[in-house]
Amino acid sequence: MDDIVDRLLVCDDPCIGLKTRLRVTGEDATSPPARALAEEVRTSDRVRGLLSIVDGDGRIPGGAYAKFTGAHWVLPTLADIGYPQGDARLIPLRDQVYETWLDPQHTRERVVAREASSRKRLPGVPIIEGRARRCASQEGNALWSTLALGIADARAEELAGNLRRWQWPDGGWNCDRSADASNSSFMETLIPMRALALHGRVTGDTASAEAALRASEVFLKRRLFRRQSDGSVIREDFTKLHYPCYWHYDILFSLKVLGEMGLLGDPRCGDALDLLESKRLPDGGFPAERRHYKVVTSPQPGGSLVNWGGVSAKRMNPWVTIDALCVLRESGRSTA
Known about the structure:
mainly alpha; 14 helices; 5 strands; 3-stranded mixed sheet
């Protein structure tokens, strides 16, 4: 275990080194070495790649949600790799994201009995059978990333309020417009849960903290990847390791967020932790088993302008490894 941590710490990529210090060894972000490394992250090749298509106005052309090169995806990626807080250079990207998800046409609620076909759908948030049908991972990513990067403004409160108002009775969120849909979506619940938990910690907002805790039951009562009815795996991809996850769900992403919330001690995390440990490679690292992106040199749907280590059954992926080691440390299963 020490060997793999040492390899990560001395990696040429400062983003990997910083994230290892902060997430695996538990170093304080305000320590002189961590602060110096964070400045290297700011000017790193990885960050330059992520921001390479920013225009003269500081925004990314093509719409905030352009997958996976738009501002909506770039900001949470920067936050996750430890980009320094409070950088004014990111303000135009923040504004681009806030304007997208807080546009009155986007947030307008309308109570309807059923939804029209996709070609005839009106903008806004349909309320069907008393449940808001929203892809809440969008608001969730905007809220979490801007708080984590220290660039949130008063509009973050509106994002948090919308998420709380659109929360389903079982604690999560879902964009399924079928009238009979009654269970929250794993993919649309994890990110808003993460966002509201952070909002509660940063602002002291108890309503957000309580909403996040309610959302955690969506995952915990299913042991993070199993059906309540018979214990079978909900979806095979949930059990595979990815980085980045973007808006997708897997057990590592879920454990990572539950760890941020201090919930890894819940015994219902045990199955997922066992499964994660079973994936450790002989060198102590963890593989990326699948990926949601393709490496591109210019924006295109599903493309990433930087490489996140690829997929291999036998070779450790540093990003997956850092998250896995962090989870195991926080769960008490590793002293690394």
